[in-house]
Write a structure and sequence with these properties.
The protein is mostly helical. It has 15 helices and two strands. Strands 1-2 form a two-stranded antiparallel ribbon. Strand 1 and strand 2 form a beta hairpin. Helix 9 packs across helix 11, helix 10 crosses helix 11 and helix 11 crosses helix 12. The protein starts with 15 loop residues before the first helix and ends in an 11-residue tail after the last strand. This is Acidic fibroblast growth factor intracellular-binding protein. It holds the Pfam family FIBP.
């Protein structure tokens, strides 16, 4: 006689800890082994078989929910599982959460099947299980494909279609913006930058340089594209990075930095060289308040956010 698996339940109970282990890519046996080592469970004298049975039940549930998690509105409208709103929100947020180290490696890559095959290297580099790396890559690709052609604000579109918290949606918006504009984030000179550094830069560009900027005269109500008129205006500033102007830029920058602590001021002065861009605020004739390439500077061991 063939075996038939029957899964019967009423109110669906979710164990967040087991859910985390499933999201991290552990097998049921690995997850049960991790749980068995926890001191909080030792007084109950739960055997490995007991824990494995419970974990397998949860993993079966999570596998059934995954297709709905890929399209969160379906999870909220389905009637198969009785899950309260707070638990639904937790499931969605954790499913779309990611490891910054993994997404840092994904940035700058094309979101294709070939890139997905390279996740073995990212898994080895970041020490994140391959299954988790695949989930994170697939989530980024899914969000990108869903919102890349939509009018309106990226964060709003992501929140609408994926029901994730605004803070997490802002991170995804930055990743979508970088992917859409094909910024080269994998160059060696940028290796010292972290994921949060790129999020800060992308968020600033979305707010001030994209078509959805409030001061954009050619308003197309779309966050993913840069305002072409604004980019043309930036060409006029190219002269500022020519060799003849560098010394003047250096003097002006150091003058503007005189209010900084002496240690920081001396560090900037001694590390002035052509490797990184010091942000300087100007106003174009279109009213954009922007960070432009005034002079090139790298402060060793310092991130964009620290600056």
């Amino acid at each position: 006689m063939n075996e038939v698996e029957v899964f019967v339940g009423n109110h669906t109970t979710i164990d967040p800890e087991i859910y985390e282990l499933w999201l991290k890519g552990y097998s049921a046996n690995e997850a049960a082994g991790i749980l068995q080592k926890q001191e909080s469970l030792q007084p109950f004298q739960a055997t490995l078989e007991d824990l494995l049975s419970d974990v397998q039940d949860h993993f079966h549930l999570f596998n059934g929910l995954e297709n709905m998690l890929k399209s969160p509105p379906r999870l909220q409208n389905q009637q198969v599982y009785q899950i309260d709103e707070a638990t639904q929100a937790m499931l969605i947020e954790k499913y779309y959460s990611f490891d910054a180290s993994v997404i840092r490696e994904v940035l700058g890559r094309k979101l294709t099947s070939r890139s997905r095959k390279d996740l073995d290297d990212i898994s080895e580099l970041t020490c994140i299980p391959l299954r988790s790396c695949r989930r994170q890559f697939d989530n980024v690709k899914r969000v990108f494909k869903t919102v890349e052609e939509l009018k309106g604000y990226l964060v709003d579109n992501i929140c609408t279609h994926f029901r994730m918290p605004e803070a997490l949606a802002r991170d995804y918006a930055a990743v979508v913006f970088i992917a859409n504009n094909r910024f080269e984030t994998g160059k060696k000179k940028l290796n010292y930058l972290h994921f949060r550094d790129f999020v800060a830069c992308a968020t600033h560009m979305i707010t001030n340089w994209s078509y959805s900027s409030v001061v954009c005269t050619n308003h197309e109500d779309m966050d993913v594209d840069l305002d072409r008129n604004f980019l043309q205006l930036l060409r006029e500033l190219k002269v500022l990075i020519e060799k003849d102007c560098l010394e003047e830029h250096r003097a002006l920058m150091l003058k503007a930095a005189q209010g900084l602590p002496e240690r920081v001021y001396m560090h900037i002065d001694s590390n002035f060289r052509v490797e990184w861009f010091w942000p300087f605020t100007v106003n174009s004739e279109h009213g954009h308040e922007v960070y432009i390439i005034l002079t090139q500077l790298k402060v060793k061991g310092t991130s964009v956010i620290d600056l």
